[in-house]
Amino acid sequence: MTLEVRDLTIDVSGRRIVHGISFDVPDGARVGLIGESGSGKSMTALAILGLLPDGASAGGSIRWNGRELLGLADRELAELRGDDIGIVFQEPRTALNPIRTVGRQIAESVRIHQRVSRAEAKRRAIEEAARVALPDPERIVDRYPHQLSGGQRQRVAIATALACRPRLLIADEPTTALDVTIQAEILDLLLELVERDGMSLVFITHDLAVLSRIATHGIVLDEGRIVEEAPVATLLTEPASPVTQGLLRDATATLWRPGGVA
């Protein structure tokens, strides 16, 4: 399945913030959208899923496996979310419901999309918790988000996004709130799961070092426009745009060292 974005525009309260960008994510590809805050990368991800905030609107075309997503009814978009397309957000503390156990949250999309029993849903939640390497999965599924560490909460968010084995995963700065060591563990986990399940990936970040660990192709955004698009290895060694050159200077040295791609 392929994601095709054509001439995408996004307006917020009458102000254009994304200016006609186009890109493809072929089946099994790992594509990164990279840029500074305000470049339009996260809003692009929200547009794909039909989750733009109030006051925002999108134009152009977003097609998933040939199906136009822009203008699709909320009910039809809800059927795609979690089933065909999963998303992991930046901050799991706000993405997860504080008054529901993490097991119930992992199992929610399974119950919605696959209509399994409560007992089967819990079994699946334990299975998914184990798949993302959460400790003692039989017990951890009965805990609440505040009882877990930041890295564990992000693993729960990943398990929730992948429980129905979507064909495309959108990861919106999923490691930014974590320390560098946990950040590397989460990136390695995501890469392992994406490769194991043969998913396509859209990975959003402001850090070229992070992108180098997980994506093979990068799209650089600046003020809602694509300023460079190339294999990640090329962005690291031969950045053509001043924007990319600036991102390279700011790359997290602990995750990537000049002279090689992590």
Automatic annotation (TrEMBL):
<keyword id="KW-1003">Cell membrane</keyword>
<feature type="domain" description="ABC transporter">
    <location>
        <begin position="3"/>
        <end position="248"/>
    </location>
</feature>
<comment type="similarity">
    <text>Belongs to the ABC transporter superfamily.</text>
</comment>
<dbReference type="InterPro" id="IPR050388">
    <property type="entry name" value="ABC_Ni/Peptide_Import"/>
</dbReference>
<dbReference type="GO" id="GO:0005524">
    <property type="term" value="F:ATP binding"/>
</dbReference>
<keyword id="KW-0813">Transport</keyword>
<dbReference type="InterPro" id="IPR003439">
    <property type="entry name" value="ABC_transporter-like_ATP-bd"/>
</dbReference>
<dbReference type="InterPro" id="IPR017871">
    <property type="entry name" value="ABC_transporter-like_CS"/>
</dbReference>
<keyword id="KW-0067">ATP-binding</keyword>
<protein>
    <submittedName>
        <fullName>ABC transporter ATP-binding protein</fullName>
    </submittedName>
</protein>
<dbReference type="InterPro" id="IPR027417">
    <property type="entry name" value="P-loop_NTPase"/>
</dbReference>
<keyword id="KW-0547">Nucleotide-binding</keyword>
<keyword id="KW-0472">Membrane</keyword>
<dbReference type="Pfam" id="PF00005">
    <property type="entry name" value="ABC_tran"/>
</dbReference>
<dbReference type="InterPro" id="IPR003593">
    <property type="entry name" value="AAA+_ATPase"/>
</dbReference>
